[in-house]
Design goal:
The complex is a heterodimer of chains A (about 280) and B (about 170). By secondary structure, chain A is α+β, with helices and mostly antiparallel strands. Helices cover about 30% and strands about 25% of the residues of chain A. Chain B has one domain: Beta-grasp domain (Ubiquitin-like (UB roll)). Helices cover about 35% and strands about 15% of the residues of chain B. The C terminus of chain B is likely disordered. Classes of the chains: A alpha+beta (about 280), B alpha+beta (about 170). At the A-B interface, strand 1, strand 3 and helix 4 of A face strand 4 and helix 4 of B.
Chain lengths: ~280, ~170
């Protein structure tokens, strides 16, 4: 693509009107990092969303609300009660990219290696979308297929709402990479709810080693009602192949990736259980 | 669609400037054509860190920003740091440690280190490494760069204590 115009709307409604008018040639721009890698010479216009007050993190009732144009480094640095988002954000790319790249950019067009969709699926997050008025959509629906489908008519993601974890909740994420700043080979995120010494509910999601991030429902079912032990985690992780067809990657066979995914699932579950037992940072 | 000509106003190293640009011009290209050539072109795809500048207090890759994204922002380049005759502490330590080999990565390294020192307090090794994780040294001289950075951080940490001690305490 070739950037031919830079539009600076003064409000959300102006931004939406510009994008509707531009049609496929309109590109919402927050961090803008992805635009540099879009192939081809198709002329496009960038609609700058960075001056619309969409960069913030605040706790509102039972949710943390993160503005769609909030840089990943702000999420990494933020601390709130039982906040868990910083762990994955510090593992995304490099410091300079985290200072520019935004949560909205990471999830509105999902690339296969994206980490945040996996985390938001496990967290049961809610996305706030502006379509003339604000509406909310849960993560399962938002990530049921490529979210870009939701924004073709100029609608905009304005915020992501993440439930504040309760005392019995635990969250863990694991990202396997070749080196610190590399794209993910496997990303796993797990949310556990413990009650009376057993797992009352579980949400486990995977990404990167599969074509599109998804929940691992067989793993979740195998965890529910069981004690949060290493044996339980290993037995549940062994079922991941039922939910996901792991893809081979550069230098790695599909079997190797499946093994890596299983180990990562166990690690994520152990971290989640540890979190639920009292680790808060 | 014809590429529009546009203008961008920003502060560079404390000076307010306005430049004619194009929507697709990278900040890195604008800086270099306007004479800020200490900011290096390395990979051009946000990996190596040679083009690192500080924008509104944050280290960013100038090759992954369009010049128009700098509108109204405060940009600092390596030219805002020390001079040959009066180097900044990080520059002194890099030289003292023998950390400058080919030197191409050093402007970026200095800008990331500056962002670190101006943002964080009580800087642990873990935090320092997080701030430096986007800068590669093709000569692989990481150990000496790390020694220089740690010495600079230790010097900065000792400064307040030095200032707090009574004048002329040591005779």
């Amino acid at each position: 693509m070739k950037l031919c115009e830079f539009v600076r709307p003064a409000s959300l409604s102006q931004a939406r009107a510009s994008l509707r008018k531009l049609g496929p040639k309109g590109m919402p721009l927050a961090g803008g990092t992805a635009l540099h890698f879009m192939p081809g010479k198709t002329p496009v216009s960038a609609v700058d969303l960075t001056h619309l007050g969409l960069s913030y993190i605040r706790q509102k009732g039972n949710f943390f609300e993160i503005g769609a144009a909030t840089p990943l480094s702000d999420i990494q640095r933020y601390r709130g009660p039982r906040w868990a988002m910083h762990e994955i954000c510090r593992r995304i790319s490099t410091h300079q990219i985290r200072n520019v790249s935004t949560i909205g950019g990471n999830i509105c067009r999902v690339f296969p290696w994206a980490d945040l969709p996996v985390v938001l699926l496990a967290m049961n997050a809610r996305m706030v979308i502006y379509s003339g008025k604000l509406k909310e959509m849960d993560a399962d629906e938002f990530f049921s297929s490529q979210p870009a489908r939701l924004f073709r008519n100029g609608d905009l993601l304005t915020a992501v709402k993440i439930p504040v974890l309760k005392a019995q909740h635990g969250f863990g994420s694991v990202k396997a990479t070749r080196n610190a700043a590399a794209f993910s080979m496997v990303t796993i995120a797990a949310l556990l709810e413990l009650k009376g010494g057993v797992i009352a509910a579980a949400r486990v999601a995977a990404g990167s080693a599969i074509p599109f991030p998804k929940r691992l429902r067989s793993v979740e079912a195998a965890l529910t009602g069981k004690e949060p032990s290493a044996e339980t985690f290993r037995a549940a992780a062994a079922l991941a192949g039922t939910d996901a067809k792991w893809c081979k990657q550069e230098g790695m066979s599909a079997e190797y990736v499946a093994g890596l995914a299983e180990v990562s699932i166990v690690d994520a579950l152990e971290r989640a259980a540890e979190f639920a037992r009292g680790r808060t940072a | 669609m014809k590429t529009n000509t546009c203008s961008v106003s920003l502060s560079i190293n404390g000076e307010k400037k306005t430049f004619a640009t194009r929507p697709d011009e990278k900040l890195l290209d604008l800086l270099r054509r306007e004479g800020y050539k200490g900011t290096k072109y390395g990979c051009g795809q946000g990996t190596c860190g040679a083009c690192t500048v500080i924008m509104d207090g944050r280290a960013v890759y100038a090759c992954l920003l369009y010049s128009m994204q700098a509108e109204g922002r405060k940009v600092r380049t390596i030219e805002s740091m020390g001079t040959y005759d009066k180097p900044a502490p990080i520059q002194q330590e890099l030289v003292a440690a023998g950390a400058v080999q080919c030197g191409y990565c050093i402007p970026g390294i200095i800008m990331s280190a500056t962002a670190l020192m101006e943002t964080e307090k009580d800087i642990s090794d873990e935090v320092a490494k997080e701030y430096m994780d986007g800068n590669l040294c093709r000569c692989t001289g990481y150990e000496k760069i790390w020694v220089a950075l740690r010495r600079t951080l230790d010097r900065a940490a000792a400064e307040p204590a030095k200032k707090a001690s009574p004048k002329g305490g040591k005779k």
